[in-house]
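Hi R.,

Here's the chain you asked about this morning:
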Amino acid sequence: MLDFNLVKLNFATAVAILLVPHEAISAPVFADLDPSGTYLFVHDTNPGFDQRRAPTTVPLAGLNFSTKIPRSNQYLAINTRGTYTGGGGFTGLTSGVARFSNGGSTIPSPSGATEIFTIPSSPFGIPSDVGGDFFVPDRGSDPSVENYTIVQVPDAATSLQFTVNDSFFRDNTSQGYRAKVTTFQDVMDGSLTIDDRSTPGVMFANILPMNRFSIDDAARLGGYDHFNWLQNITSFEFEGETRTVFDPFPLGVLSRGTGLDPLLGGNAGQFADNSPLYWNETNSILFPDSLFIDFDAGDGSPNNSSFRDGPNLIFEGWSALFNTSLVGVRDDGTFDVLSDILDNGDQYTFNWKYTQTSNSLLSILPSGPDGRVTSLANADLSLAGGGQIDFLGFGQIDSPAPIPVPAALPMFLTALLGLGYLTRTRCRSHSV
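And the predicted structure, written out as tokens:
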């Protein structure tokens, strides 16, 4: 199990978080491929012709699937590296094909992986094709991102079997020809890092998928469209005394309780959609573009792979404690907290504290940037309070606070002003 030291670090005086894994993280499985073996039909009844050899088989039991969810809900990313040499001196070949099997027959993937038509066997042109197998690409030449076929694991499958797309097999030889089989856990284990930027009063986190995966392919491998975050405020403090409500002004102006951050509809002065997730899943003319999940300012931290929050608690002495989790979001808007579905799940949730170290009234007055008022869940760093960030460690330190009823004012204004405006929802379809 991956176990992280919990390191409290003051961001006002340091620029790095120490993440100390105690054991090796999950890693893909590599298998040497025999290009002379196949599960396809070959003309092997005559000794002078092709002779069937068993295909390279990778047992699914040896892969790094999460133990928290059924295997049939999980996906694999598969590619090859190296080459093989075929009969007649053909070199540099990479054409790979694979299938799921239960030890005998082919079991098609429920994700509908593209069926590949294999070459008829030699020398009589006898059809060799079987239904339900799929193309396996070579990794490609890009040193930073690899090519993959991503397929969902069938419920009854026990293994992966590999062949090359050829018409004659016995004279094929490997030139370092190997398969790489990667699970979602392999890609995500160790991917969430606390950024080492020194901007006062701002918490940053990034997702850096392992094993040369792009952020979009990493999401696809989990069965998701994209990533987002779920944040709760677990408590407030004023001058060291624990509070359940943040109430900096009389008569409850800007007050709020613990729970979801931002509130459904947005925090005071900054509208948001009605999703419980941190970045807006739906965009509208009412919402700042910078809060939309697809926003990318070109600074190396696009919203779909990063988290940033610069709270502003207005008056010196106030503190807020946050619990922030990485989530995977499907096309239909449903989502999973990764801590709940992956092994070593504590690494996908982190805890931190913001303390207002001086009054910051000017940043919230109407004369401030955009005339907006914001205090929590603030991704507009021009409105940050500039206080102190303390990183408190990974994992759940308390049961998440219940999601509160949406703030009345933002919700009312959002409903009133939003009538007639077109919105766009973050949703992309993917094929595998």
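The CA atoms of residues 250 and 256 lie 13 Å apart.

Let me know if you need anything else.
M.
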